[in-house]
Amino acid sequence: MRRPPRSAPRNSAAPGSEGQYGVAAQLPAVPVAGAAGPPLRIGALGEHHLAPGRYVYTGSARRHPRARLERHLGLRPRRLRWHVDYLLTHPDCQVVDVCLVAIEECALNARQGGRIAIPGFGASDCQAGCGAHLRYLGAGVAPLAGG
Ligand SMILES: [Zn+2]
């Protein structure tokens, strides 16, 4: 994974209220992640073709959300544990934005628009019926819709 443009996550949440976060990631048009390239294995979800363009993942960490974000950004050691790890450790995947917010994870997910990229992605414990916590926004560049 290439390094994000910023070394530290920006924090739009009030102190002590953070816990939810968004990660925007970009997959290049060529050559590996497109429909014509090899599929990406997403843990137990199996292999998937991901269209090139912008993706937004929303997650939450009840404890130490900033450390979780740093882990997602490759600033801390990690093994492949969460679905998003399989995406973010892809060598052509570039993290382009992150945010820490105080609003609920599923509400943050709903704000992103786009469409479900892979059913069930990141939503193992979702109670709101999101379908997935990874949204595909298309090939255009859009900022994170934070709090
Ligand atoms: Zn949800």
From TrEMBL:
Annotated stretches, region: Disordered: 1-20
Name of the protein described by the UniProt record: DUF123 domain-containing protein
Top-level lineage group: Bacteria
Listed Low complexity bias regions: 8-20
Native source organism of the sequence: Sediminicurvatus halobius
CDD domains: GIY-YIG_COG1833
InterPro entries: DUF123
